[in-house]
């Protein structure tokens, strides 16, 4: 189970115990870049909002889980970040309610579950079946409904497994599979013109 995605440098095996501040600093260096990219996509490119959400998640992690092992911080951090994102989107939806034509993507774009096999080893490049630039991928991901964005970014970008992603998103594993599957299908359709061999 990949509770700790990517290669971790945070907890170098050493006999010298690290202070909480040092552990948090190393953890922040490790995940902040990827977390910012995820939040910028989810916030329609609003960098200031994305930075605020990531910073608030780090603060909440530090305040509420200082005694947890560093390995357990990964799913906890993304759970906190997910909750902060949903809170922000609710506030934005309320604020723009009187402007229906400006409404954001719905918060729960699809809650029904499809019986889809877990695509545990699907790489974004394999799923889309082509080489794409980072900008093209990010633009396509940004156009997805928020729950599909979350599922795709947590599974494909962060490398979390289905069970961990479900805990972070506070939904069932079936919902994660559904959101992820729909995200992949939507990305394939959106980026199909780039798959031409002509």
From TrEMBL:
Signal peptide: none annotated. GO terms for molecular function: DNA binding; sigma factor activity. It holds the Pfam family Sigma70_r2. Residues 135-186 form the RNA polymerase sigma factor 70 region 4 type domain. Residues 45-95 form the RNA polymerase sigma-70 region domain. Gene3D superfamilies: 1.10.1740.10, Winged helix-like DNA-binding domain superfamily/Winged helix DNA-binding domain. The keyword RNA-binding does not apply. The keyword ATP-binding does not apply. CDD domains: Sigma70_r4. Keywords: Sigma factor, Transcription, Transcription regulation. It comes from the Bacteria. One of its GO terms (biological process) is DNA-templated transcription initiation. Belongs to the sigma-70 factor family. ECF subfamily. PANTHER family: ECF SIGMA FACTOR (PTHR43133:SF64), RNA POLYMERASE ECF-TYPE SIGMA FACTO (PTHR43133). This is RNA polymerase sigma factor. The lineage of its organism: Bacteria, Pseudomonadati, Pseudomonadota, Gammaproteobacteria, Moraxellales.
């Amino acid at each position: 189970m990949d509770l700790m995605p990517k290669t971790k440098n945070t907890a170098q095996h050493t006999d010298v115990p690290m202070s909480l501040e040092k552990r948090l600093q190393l953890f922040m260096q490790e995940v902040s870049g990827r977390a910012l990219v995820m939040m910028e996509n989810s916030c329609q490119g609003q960098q200031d909002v994305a930075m605020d959400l990531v910073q608030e998640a780090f603060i909440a992690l530090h305040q509420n889980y200082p005694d947890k092992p560093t390995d357990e911080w990964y799913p906890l951090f993304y759970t906190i970040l997910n909750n902060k994102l949903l809170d922000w989107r609710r506030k934005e939806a309320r604020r723009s309610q009187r402007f229906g034509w400006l409404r954001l993507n719905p918060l729960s774009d699809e809650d029904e579950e499809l019986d889809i096999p877990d695509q545990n080893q699907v790489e974004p490049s394999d799923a889309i079946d082509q080489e794409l630039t980072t900008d093209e991928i990010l633009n396509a991901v940004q156009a997805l409904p928020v729950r599909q964005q979350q599922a795709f970014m947590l599974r494909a970008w962060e490398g979390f497994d289905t069970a961990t992603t479900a805990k972070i998103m506070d939904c069932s594993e079936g919902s994660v599979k559904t959101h992820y599957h729909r995200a992949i299908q939507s990305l394939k359709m959106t980026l199909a013109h780039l798959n031409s061999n002509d």
